[in-house]
Amino acid sequence: MQQFEKGETIRLEDGRSAIVDSFLGEGAQGAVYAVSVDGQRKALKWFRKQPSERFLKNIRKNIKDGSPSPTFLWPEALAKVRTGGIGYLMPLKPDGCYEFTKFRMAKVRFSSFRAIIEAAMNLCDAFRLLHANGLSYQDLNDGGFFINPNTGDVRICDCDNVYPHGENSGILGKARYMAPEVVMGKTLPNSYTDRFSLTVILFMLFCVDHPFEGFNVIKHPCLTEAFEQRLFGKDICFIFNDEKDINRPVRGVHRNALTMWPLLPEELRGKFKEQFSDRIINSPQERMTEMQWVDVFISLRDHLMKCPHCGDETFVYGNQPCLNPRCRKPIQVTYVMEGAGRSIPLIKGNIIRFERTGVPSGVVIDKNDASGLLLIKNLTEKAWTVLTPSGKSLSLAPGGFMPVKQDLVISTIFKFKINK
Amino acid sequence: MALTDYELIPTARRVLNLFMMVDTSGSMSGEKIAAVNDAIRNVIPIISTINDDNPDAEIKISTLTFASTANWINSTPVLASDFKWTDLDAEGWTCMGDATRELNRQLSHKHGFLASASGSYAPVIILLSDGAPTDDFYGAMSEIMTNNWFKHSMRIAIAIGADADIDVLKTFTGNPELVFRAQNIDALKAVIKATVVTSSMVASRSSSVGMSGTKTGTAASGATLISKSEEAATALAEELDDVAGLSVGDEALIDSLDFDEFD
């Protein structure tokens, strides 16, 4: 229900005022308005029901401590009106970011694997920083964020349930996203259960379907609450579980999972299988941390490149064929660059990204003569130190070239060695 | 072949069937049936939006009217976004027993309305009546009580005016907190809208625990999830808090007491 009209002024607790611009929408908890504060465009969430004092005290603390990452649409100031009612100011989501539920409904689609990987990294990075600050999100589900389908830019909303790890917000979460130990009533949400929910979302980014919805779930014509608690609690089973095939995706129903899963590199599929195995499901403390996920996505990014035959996006591992069913030509990799736990295939056209942020550091090009030799161009603004097998130390200026040759070592923030 | 060339479909959604059982007996004629028509017409676009934005469920609507006979308005459940309301007329007896039998017949995924490849949620059934059954309602109730779909359904009843038989509606819902008595036309419109919207919202998503900050005490046990019927009852009570001329549960029972009997 729209409560404020355009032009209305609402006083914020920090002394500033918000001027209502437009009504943006409504959720279960309340309405969201676009407002302007000191000429800056912001969002104002307004609660339908008066929240508890504990809830408000927690929001005030979160406002004071500040956002762990700009990815969160973090509360900035509380607002009250004399007639009763309360809300808070937060950043406005950027244009071009869409609700994740729209991706699930196939109304919005990622334009590339690169965008999916960026989105996955952005999500993991945000939760890594949140957890590093001793906080937990507690209600991680498909309704809590916006993603740009072309860039993978992410914004996480509904940050009003963020509580310190170990303290409960009063929210258990949404079934099917909650960790099984929460569904079974063994624990309240915390950062370990957040990690389970995060893995569910990561799977959905790539596969669009739900990781635990297969035959074993849809064979029940009526998903009663009792079934829901059993199938997402005690009897939870990953649709691609290697040991149990009771819950496989069903053709015609879970079509997205069946389409996308075979396209993913084994490196990623293996992580999902491991994280959704009975062993890890039952050992919350052994779940992968966000940092470990980021490493997986960095590696995925290292192996994602344009096929030298057809020009399409493909994952290059060893001498596997191109993903494009109309190409399927094997992609030969002679040299790789190894270091910092990574292995980057050196094929023509590949962009090398040393840094986690993903800014291009170098590009592999063809010498363009009969030798077939590959070269690497330094795309950074700093000189690289290149160590040769005979022990020389050379400087490669920005824009300069070096050959792809066995045992050459590039020393930047990390050391990378060229190998066969 | 780029990533966008692979065909993706909306993620498989379970069906949430919303059944509206509307009393169209003679006593409903005039402003009561007009209010029902108006309220449902206004609530359809809201349900349609809930359906479109919901990756968990697609909402299908079935309308069963009952007067001298019970009749389905559509031969199969209609997706909320395709649903068109045709104004109902009121005339005849109150064959609520017949209606309950007809509902029982269609609450089946093999022979009835509930077939779905990706499964269903437990249905929502909203019963509106302004009178007392003129046929064997309790006989029909004992039959439908063996239907598992019915047992798991979320049932809400709206009693229109003072003559509605609250005991019958209480028997139907199995929960006095989900019986609402609307004493006037505005209350009736408000309760239809709130009931249809709230029940669809609650029932069409996966189980979860209430709104932030409002349920701390209940959830802190960590042992059980709040049932959807309970959640709907709470949400409806909050939603309808300040609607004049509306009473709920025991209050509705007290309202229906015939004080003259105690003279």
Overall tally of domains of chain B: 1
* Residue runs with pLDDT of under 50 for 5 or more positions of chain B: 209-223
Order of helices and strands of chain B: EHEEEHEEHHEHEHHHEH
Strand content of chain B: 15-25%
Largest interface: A-B, 70 and 53 residues
Strands ordered across the widest β-sheet of chain A: 1-2-3-4-6-5
Residue share in helices of chain A?
10-25%
CATH architecture group name of chain B: 3-Layer(aba) Sandwich
Q: Estimate the strand proportion of chain A.
A: 15-25%
Major sheet of chain A, described briefly?
6 strands, antiparallel
Q: Estimate the helix proportion of chain B, in percent.
A: 25-40%
> Strand tally of chain A, please?
24
What radius of gyration of chain A results from the CA coordinates? 25 Å
Instruction: Note the gap between the termini of chain B.
Output: 84 Å
Specify the CATH class of chain B.
Alpha Beta
> What's the CATH class of the largest domain in chain A, please?
Mainly Alpha
Major beta sheet summary of chain B: 8 strands, mixed
Q: Pairing-aware structural class of the strands and helices of chain A?
A: alpha+beta
Could you characterize the architecture of this molecule?
- The complex is a heterodimer of chains A (420) and B (263).
- Chain A has 420 residues and is an alpha+beta fold.
- Chain A has 3 domains: 1-49, 2-Layer Sandwich (Phosphorylase Kinase, domain 1), CATH 3.30.200.20; 98-288, Transferase(Phosphotransferase) domain 1 (Transferase(Phosphotransferase), domain 1); 306-419, Tumour Suppressor Smad4.
- Helix content of chain A is 25%, strand content 24%.
- Chain A is built from 11 helices and 24 strands.
- In chain A, the strands form 6 sheets. In chain A, strands 1-2-3-4-6-5 form a 6-stranded antiparallel β-sheet, with helices on one face. In chain A, strands 16-15-24-23-20-21 form a 6-stranded antiparallel β-sheet. In chain A, strands 17-18-19-22 form a 4-stranded antiparallel β-sheet, with no helix packed on it.
- The longest helix of chain A has 20 residues, at 113-132.
- In chain A, 45% of the residues are buried.
- The mean pLDDT of chain A is 91.
- Chain B is an alpha/beta fold.
- Chain B has one domain (12-214, 223-253): 3-Layer(aba) Sandwich (Rossmann fold), CATH 3.40.50.410.
- Helix content of chain B is 37%, strand content 18%.
- In chain B, strands 1, 2, 3, 4, 6, 7, 8 and 9 form an 8-stranded mixed β-sheet that branches.
- The longest helix of chain B has 22 residues, at 31-52.
- The radius of gyration of chain B is 19 Å and the shape is globular.
- The interface between A and B is large, with 70 and 53 residues.
